[in-house]
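We store sequence with structure; for instance:
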Amino acid sequence: MNASSLDRASPALRQLVDGIDELLVLLAPDGRVLDANLAGRGLIGDDSTGRAFATPSWLPATEDREAVAAAIAGVSIAGAPARVHVRPVRGGERLDMELRFSPVESDDGPAVAVSGHDVTAERRAERAYDRSERMLAGIVRSVPDAIVTVDAQQVIRMANPGAEAAFGYTADEMIGQPLALLLPEAVRERHAAHVRDFGGGGEDARFMNQRVPVAGRRRDGRVFPAEVTIARTPVGDEVLYTAVLRDISDRWKTQRELAEARQHEEAILRSVADGVIGIDRHGRTTFANPAAARLLGYRVHELIGHDLHALAHHSRPDGSAYAAEQCPTWRATHQGIALGGDDVYWRADGTALPVEYTATPFHVDGQVEGAVIVFRDGSARKRAEAELLQLSLVDELTGLYNRRGFMLHANRALERAAEDGHVIVLAFFDMDRFKAINDAHGHLAGDQALREVATLLRRTLRRDDVLGRFGGDEFVALLARPPGEDFDGQLQARIEAQLAHRNAAPDTPFALAMSIGTVQRAPGDQRSIESLLADADAELYRAKRGRRPA
């Protein structure tokens, strides 16, 4: 580029510079564009003159702009040429470009000349080659088969980890050694002849095991049968031979044991109590043991070939449709994810079967080809869990809810009352002189007194009222009624009548008495159950202090 402004250049020179494909730009020392050829304006913009050279409009990466600014500063201050690789954008396409910065003298003083060479194609080719090399190296490292490369003199040039595992040598111990190191002595000469014959022929690859038996020799001297594929590859002025070897010493043993293993597996599947079903990747049943057929109410042959989801997993526990793609077995067969847990299967007669299950994908040649589902009847466990839950919520002595059970059901009752617009009454009961009963008549009598109070409260309250023993000699009840009903006063009157009737009975060893504290929550009142309990407890002790037992 002429060091003077191109605007003052001759038309012929201007046309020559604009005809150059590379970017040519003249910059002021502060980085402003003084002039640019056609290629330069096509990249940085037709209106770039007088503006900063490195702008986000064509150089979006901050690190690129910083590198360009540093290069301009180095040229302007120290006069040192610089080269920077950047990735500009032109027409929405990301490019690779090498920018060269050089000091020049213009008619207006010192300036910086910038030339840019588009290396996009070269960089793409380099990256593609690098990816290819890394991929090939990764494949060679990861392949479990032994891969060995030898030259025309049958000297080992490369050995992968699979070869290390097969022969028992490290790669460093094999490289540079004759191939005979890995062959049984009896076949070395014959093998060398076959390789020479192969090298002189017109083939590029051969399955060696189709021609002659192939055997390998491990470091410890053991000989093993193998399948080998060998390929001839010219590299520069020499020819290399790459052998891919697979140890097949276990094949005969495997084949002999396969029938026995299948019989053993079938015997196990027939004898286990759990249901075992195999499905292919389309969800069709490929095998089922007798237990699976019995649990689902089918014969084994009625399951084979049918879509298991449509047959036994079509609906959720509430009866709503269960889409196949939401089914755990679908995830096992399509995503290769092992799953397990509780679910519901449907028997042939339409009844639900709670199950505990696992769905485990199985692979063939690295691809998910189906899943094995193992399930058992979960009905007994569900019943036991329900019974345990009930036991955890019920007071063993009185049969009423314990504190935990009361709080659970009371909170639900509060929610329903808020929806229905009902008034809530929370009543706190405390037995008077309970300690005196224990002291005078013993703890068995005390237990009897507690049971009698529980029975009395049950008779007094409605079935849908929430009643519990809160601990010791304290009881609590939550009642929900429509507004306008004076059931607070009616409650106390009924309890007093029940107590009077009981205490008047002949041969009663001790009298029962209770103090009561009650609070109400009107519709719209947002007090929690804990707040209501605290208020009722305070009312209870006011009643006790006032000596107004029921």
Observations:
- The chain has a mean pLDDT of 85.
